[in-house]
Specification:
about 40% helix; 12 helices; globular; Rossmann fold; Glutathione S-transferase Yfyf (Class Pi), Chain A, domain 2; binds magnesium ion
Length: about 375
Amino acid sequence: MFSDSPERQAVRLSALALRHFRNLRSQELELPAEGVALIGDNAQGKSNFLEAIYYLETLRSFRGVRDEQMVAFDADVFRVVGTTESGDERRRVEVAAAFQKKGKRKKVSIDGTEPERMADALGHLSAVIFSPADVELVSGGPSERRRFLDIVLSLNEPGYLGALQDYRKILLRRNAALKGGEAPSVVSAWNHGLIRSGAEIMQTRRAWVEHRHAAFADYYHRVSGRDGARMTYRPSVPLVDASSVQDVREAFAEALGRSAEQERRMGVTVVGPHRDDVRLRLEDEREGLDLRDYGSGGQRRTAALALRLVEAATIRDRRTHRPLILLDDVFAELDGGRSERILELIETEETGQVVLTAPKEADVRVRRDALPRWRIRGGEIST
Ligand code: ATP
Ligand code: MG
């Protein structure tokens, strides 16, 4: 699907320095250009290693935990510094992130300078992480899929993160007014801002799903080798007749009007992008079986992988370079055929460096012998 596009540059992580990040020994590492396979027994720090790398992309844990949790038990501050290189002239960028438990302070710098806005601090690695927990994207509730969308779009669509931050702030205040039983005029004073930011969020989410649903179906089919699946946007505000952002605003305003009675009763805003979902369905003769309710374990994992592959494709297109692929022991739970086809996809799609973890050498099949092996024991990596 992407092979006819001109060869894209990869951003590669060339060096990584760790200090007091979970159980990882404080150390400085140089990463091979093609990537690395990190092998180690359970609970030695493999996922922690990928968590540290991915922290430089999103400034949060891919496991969805708070920053405090990643500071080594006996320390107060963790620090992760990565050096990326891109292009033929090997342009270097240093991304540094630190978090202090006491005072809960996060500090980020790009080439030594603190970015003014959060959005400028994100996405410097162009990384995608695949993990066994991704199955929750499919099996879990709508909030899992909203979180996925929010991360992908914040990293790849200009303005999205700002709209999301505005929306959340306004929603909190509006809900506080509803909960406090304030007069309707006090509640509706927040509507203008809610509608503005909310419409931008919905419009961006819809456009992304519409643009990417074919790729999702294609990846799903290629990995499963059999059945198909589809992805559709399920906004809580009906948008069928709304195409421009102005239309979306009007639809949102109308939906708020219709739900005014209900939200007074419940003390909470009941329509808006905070109630959206992305439906993932099996494509079969009984059209519309939700993967969440009817998918087998393998089908759900396949759909989750397809979502991550779509995320990688988004990075490739929006940031015009090949993503760094982080694979956390992802083949453990898939049948041989599916794992083989995923490997093939990851190798044939334009991906950059690959950093993968596995408990056993035998699980390392990506780029087969080309990928150097590192070992990890008790948080200490030997290269
Ligand atoms: P598996 O193969 O089971 O997935 P893993 O190698 O991926 O194992 P990790 O999740 O990376 O294991 O590391 C788990 C270890 O890290 C546990 O022993 C845990 O106690 C330790 N650990 C987690 N958080 C911290 C922390 N903040 N400080 C010190 N150690 C921590
Ligand atoms: Mg792990």
